[in-house]
């Protein structure tokens, strides 16, 4: 396995976030591409989000920023974004331990899905 690829598989949407933080967000290029992808998808969904390219974010920091953006924009905007990002209803249900919508858990699903897109794009471009 080359050094440019992650040494472990990409975590699924419903796996604990610590895997994402430890393995992928420490890679500067992946984090930058993740931020660009998040900003692009939020912009296309009409949800303002403040993420800086030259800042090193942890998984929980990204989830909190996304959750805050959801809280300011409302449920309709959040569901539009989930559609745009391609988080399915089943993935959403599987990610919620109790009935209802927890903005932090939804934000974690978004970060993981966006990261999947970035990593897969990188792997297939090599």
Low-confidence stretches: 1-8
Query: Per DSSP, what share of the residues sits in E-state strands of 2 or more residues?
Result: under 5%
Helix content class: 55-70%
Mean pLDDT: 80
Radius of gyration: 14 Å
If you had to describe this structure to a student in words, what would you say it looks like?
The chain has 126 residues and is mainly α. The chain has one domain. 63% of the residues lie in helices and 0% in strands. It contains six helices and no strands. Helix 2 (28-44) crosses helix 6 and helix 3 (59-73) packs across helix 6 (103-125). The protein is globular, with a radius of gyration of 14 Å. The relative contact order is 0.19.
Record the SSE blueprint.
Layout: H1 17-23, H2 28-44, H3 59-73, H4 75-85, H5 89-95, H6 103-125
Helix pairs in contact: 2-6, 3-6
Descriptive key words:
globular, 6 helices, mainly alpha, 126 residues
Q: Quick summary of this structure?
A:
The chain is built from 6 helices and no strands.
């Amino acid at each position: 396995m080359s050094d440019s690829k992650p040494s472990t598989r990409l975590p699924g949407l419903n796996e604990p976030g610590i895997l994402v933080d430890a393995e992928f967000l420490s890679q500067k290029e992946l984090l930058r591409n993740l931020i660009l992808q998040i900003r692009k998808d939020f912009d296309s969904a009409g949800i303002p989000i403040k993420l800086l390219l030259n800042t090193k974010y942890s998984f929980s920091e990204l989830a909190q920023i996304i959750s805050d953006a959801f809280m300011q924009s409302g449920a309709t905007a959040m569901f539009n974004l989930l559609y745009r990002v391609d988080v399915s209803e089943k993935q959403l249900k599987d990610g919620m331990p109790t009935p209802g919508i927890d903005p932090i858990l939804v934000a974690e699903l978004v970060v993981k899905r966006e990261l999947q897109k970035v990593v897969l794009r990188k792997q297939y471009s090599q």
